[in-house]
Design a protein that fits this description.
four-stranded parallel beta sheet, alpha/beta, 4 strands, Rossmann fold
Length: 162
């Protein structure tokens, strides 16, 4: 038996990426957007559109609409849901997770999931750290994920994305 490895490069040149970000918890999400944008630029991406939505629950619909335009090779979903005293946290987290998953599966456009689900503002800020700070920036990590997935899907399809 032989195993064929399909490898891709972490190279965003020529990719069109959309970021769908929630305004709710803006001090956190803006830092995630900054980390994501900076990492995409460092990987050579020259085409990034930023789309703001009200909150995390609205991310899937906006991501689906963006994916259906055919204008994007990949999307990044950015939000921050911080636990409170009611079950609202659980409903929002489940809704955005299921919705973002469905967008990728139904459209074939990879969606990087960067919706923080945390217990406190402090935990959220740790995950949205500026470059070089302990904990890193989950937005930058999501940028790498979507570049890798866009390239892999392109390679599997035999297209230019690979």
């Amino acid at each position: 038996m032989s195993v064929r490895t399909i490898e891709t490069e972490l190279d965003a040149r020529g990719l069109r990426v959309g970021i769908v970000a929630a305004r709710f918890n803006h001090p956190v999400t803006s830092r995630l957007v900054d980390g994501c944008s900076a990492r995409l630029q460092a990987l050579g991406c020259e085409s990034v559109d930023l789309m703001w939505v009200a909150g995390a629950f609205e991310i899937p619909l906006a991501a689906q609409a963006a994916a259906r335009t055919g204008s994007y090779d990949a999307l990044v979903a950015i939000g921050a849901v911080i636990r409170g005293d009611t079950p609202h946290f659980d409903y929002v987290c489940q809704g955005v997770t299921d919705g973002v998953t469905r967008v990728g599966l139904e459209t074939g456009v990879p969606v990087g999931f960067c919706v923080l689900t945390v217990d406190s503002v402090e935990q959220a800020l740790e995950r949205a750290a500026a470059d070089g700070e302990p904990g890193g920036n989950k937005g930058a990590e999501a940028a790498e994920v979507v570049v890798e997935m866009a390239r892999l899907l392109g390679a599997l399809a035999g297209g230019a994305g690979g």
